[in-house]
## 1
Amino acid sequence: MKIAAFFAFMAISTTSYATCWDEAAGYFNIDPRLLNAIAQVESGMKADAYNSNNNGSYDVGLMQINSSHFSRLKKLGVDEHVLVNDPCISVLVGASILSEMIGQYGYTWEAVGAYNAGMGEKRHDLRMKYAYRVWQRYQKLKER
């Protein structure tokens, strides 16, 4: 798992919060502004955000990491507490999840939508709706 190697790097790094975006984005080859736009849509940039979902799962932290990922993250020493209390780890995990979606859909807005809405044909409209919201934030960040 690519994220495990990055965790090893982060353990010896003296990364500041401001560079978390750039380091996670660089490691996974994703525009840091895109990660930031996702965080804006997901949590409103609130590191301690918590949201329940209709399917019984829940999302935590800056990047709103879904509880469906917790079992594999636990093997890396990351739990819900870490995701809420370490925004850099939340950004890293979010970048890893987005990277997986990019592996499935290519570097497309469909992949961005899958970050939130998941995969599957029946979820296409939800993916596009979410991707549009991220795209709007992303455009504003690109204008700065």
Note: The beta strands are 50-52, 58-60, 65-66.
## 2
Amino acid sequence: MDVTYDFSKKVVLITGGTGALGRMLVKKFIDSGAITISSFNGQKEAEKLKIEHPKVELIKMDLLREEQLLKTIPQLVQQFGTINILVNVVGGYLGGKNINDLNETEWDAMLNLNLKSAFLISKHVIPVMKSGNGGNIV
């Protein structure tokens, strides 16, 4: 059974939309009528995503730099009116390494990418959602 939802007129921000899971979510939200924005870091992957999904809006963001988010989130709100849904997909793992082979710097980098990024973007999107009619964070 294929469940579909109508996200017409909803603004969705997906962090990590250029990865495998993110790409699938970009497609689903676009197909459901949402204005879909994907953050990216790598230009090559962003270009591939735009070719696959021409309706996606791309925004280069370093999710670990709060000062950048302080500028970027208001720009998105100015351009799109609001952010209704935030989907935190960005993440990563230093593949091929056992935990006992990781050093503290590598561990911290993974924690920052997987946790701190979600914290920082959520911190700055929540006020946008509160000022409107609420929203959802995944």
Note: The helical segments are 20-31, 43-52, 66-80, 104-131.
